[in-house]
Amino acid sequence: MSDPKENVGKIFKSLEKYFDPGAGRIKVKSRPVLVIGYERNATSYFNIDYETLPISSLGNFEPDPDFDILITQQTQTKLGLNKTSYIRTHKTAWNHCKNMAIDAEIGDLKSEFPALFEKILKLNEKWVSDRNTANLTEEQESVS
Fold first, then answer.
1. What is the pLDDT of residue 88?
2. Within 13 Å and on the Cβ side, how many CA atoms surround 25?
């Protein structure tokens, strides 16, 4: 298992839950994710959670104009992705390394496209900040 710091900015397959409306239940599928962080106090590389952003083709959904980043054809090819995809900067998730193919890197966004990786992190940070500010404002209004 590799050093978690070395995995930040890389794309791996991860088992992710999703709701299947046809089946009316939650299912699990393997999908590419971008690692943007990791658990700082993990006791072992074999027992660590990673912070991820999903990479999705979106299917029937419209991309969020502010937070879904389209991966261009040229970028997609260099990153080992095989169809038009979006990095969903507002869909942060955590997953345990045992639910990820952490030893089978698909691509390295941070090394190949550092400016794009930085843009993704800044958009994620903006989304988190905006959400937290809205939540704090609502909380303060309900206390008043």
1. 95
2. 3
Report the distance separating Cα 88 and Cα 119, nearest Å.
Answer: 12
Look up the CATH number of domain 4-136: 2.30.30.110
Cβ atoms of 75 and 115 within 8 Å: the answer is no
Domain limits of the chain? 4-136
DSSP codes joined into one string, 80-93: T--S-EEEETT--E
Residue numbers in the chain where pLDDT is lower than 70: 1, 138-144
Using CA atoms, how far apart are residues 127 and 35, in angstroms rounded to an integer? 17
Q: Nearest-CA neighbor of 120 among 65, 59, 68? A: 68
- Is-contact 2 103, C-beta < 8 A? yes
- pTM for the whole thing? 0.88
- Report whether 105 contacts 33 (CB < 8 A): no
